[in-house]
Amino acid sequence: MNEERKSGVIASVVQWVILGMSCLLLCWTASAVVDQGKELSQQKTALQYHSARLDKIENAIIGLTAISGDVKVLAQRIEAIREGQIRMENIIELQIGKL
Asked: Helix (H, G, I), strand (E, B), or coil: what is residue 62?
């Protein structure tokens, strides 16, 4: 009986050791999950911040692109006005030359 009792005690100790190791593993896993959640939350915040900045940059680029087109149109209008002025000067010179 003494041998059976020793076997039972050893089996009980092994079970408690396994249970303790399982609890430690569970606590470690829970801690890792919490840490991962915090990191993901920080990354989400950073992504939202950078996404907002990218939206502002994108809007600025669209605005600059529109301005570029406006500048081209203005340059064409100025060129047309200049050509009209040259034609008017030539007409005036012809009129003066006839006098």
From this structure: helix
Scan for tokens 């569970």, then name that residue: 26
Helix spans in the chain (H):
2-98
> How many Å apart are CA 44 and CA 52, to the nearest integer?
12
In b/e form, how buried is each residue of 47-76, taking b as 16+ CB within 10 angstroms?
eeeeeeeeeeeeeeeeeeeeeeeeeeeeee
pLDDT classification of 22: cutoffs 50, 70, 90? very high
Residue 20, CB-side half-sphere exposure with 13 Å CA sphere: 6
Tens digit of each residue's pLDDT (9 = 90 or more) over 38-72: 999 999 999 999 999 999 999 988 888 888 788 88
Please give the model's pTM, rounded to 2 decimal places: 0.52
**Amino acid code (one letter) for 16:** W
